[in-house]
Write a structure and sequence with these properties.
Rossmann fold, 6-stranded mixed beta sheet, 3-stranded mixed beta sheet, 2 domains, 361 residues, Ubiquitin-like (UB roll), binds guanosine-5'-triphosphate, 19% strand, alpha/beta, single chain, 14 helices, binds magnesium ion
Length: 361
Amino acid sequence: MNIAISGLSNAGKTTIFNATTGLNLETTIYASVIETPHRGSVKVPDERVDWLSSVFKPKKTTHSTIEYTDFIGLIRGDMDNNRKVFDLLKDADAIVDVVRAFKEPAVVHPENSVEPLRDARTLEVELLLSDLELLEKRLARMDEAAKRGKKPDEAERKLLIKCREFIEDEHPLRNLPLTPEQWKSLRHLQFVSIKPKIIVLNISEADMGSRETENLVVAIATELGYKPEHVIPLCGKIEMEIGQLQPDEASDFLNALGIKEPACKRLISVCYEALELISFLTVGEDEVKSWTINKGSSAVQAAGKIHSDIEKGFIRAEVVSYDAFKAAGSMAEARKHGSVNLHGKTYIVNDGDIINFRFNV
Ligand SMILES: Nc1nc2c(ncn2[C@@H]2O[C@H](COP(=O)(O)OP(=O)(O)OP(=O)(O)O)[C@@H](O)[C@H]2O)c(=O)[nH]1
Ligand SMILES: [Mg+2]
């Protein structure tokens, strides 16, 4: 999974990138100019994988991974600059917009004042403008082709016009109600406002847990049509310090600050929820591994995630839930309790299912 960190310049993008990846890249008080995006990969923390690994003692333990990218800031109205950022967003599964709420006079704000609601709106508008440009171009090309005698694909034309109207009403495409087939038919156009988005509100240390912060979260979520849980207030500066610590040191620090979950974990769990992702697990002496799939995936789709041969030759999925396995303590005990069940191709996989696929090659 690839998550692109975006935002205006100096909002704290690199700070959040450092907090989530544990890296320690330079952060500056002036807008940075970099040619290539920063990339960092992190393990998705999952206690279930750690526990299963302690039971099976496999040769290899593999967590799911997330790749974060961090690049230059978006600039209001500067399409040439923003296009570079959007090219990166096109490859992402989700966008994390960092919105500055911290007040630090030494750090230059591109709009010369700290106004989080305005900036969150600006970031959304820039996505809409980019998609609008793409739509206009596409529709113009269809019209030209029609003039030359090529019969237009009416279904596509209608859909694109619907998208354009939605954007002109200032709504991002991610909120447009469409059928799965329509979503699929839009995919190749690589719209950016179609991507799931989460907002990180980068607050001052003094505002952590404050009533003002709570109100700001609600204001941004309401105004821009986000679920409030998809607007995450956190103090980038502190989170970056936490990201540099060893886990045992970090937990003392978190307790002292009253932070329940560090940013690196919190962002991942919110992204999983927003993207409707779940994990299933495979276990054995060779490897304990977690696999990320879409919620609602069938057993045969999960098999395909591992290998196309397992999908093709699928016979049965032998499934035990993580909780039942943990309660039983071993596969033999879980079987005795009747917790291990055989399922066919259409079984809908649950988060935390431990699966052994039986297949023919
Ligand atoms: N006080 C305070 N300062 C912060 C916080 N987050 C970031 N900063 C500071 O703000 C400045 C900009 O942070 P960066 O992380 O470099 O911001 P950026 O969005 O990556 O900036 P560009 O890459 O230049 O667009 C740095 O001096 C950071 O130390 C915060 O939560 N509180
Ligand atoms: Mg930066």
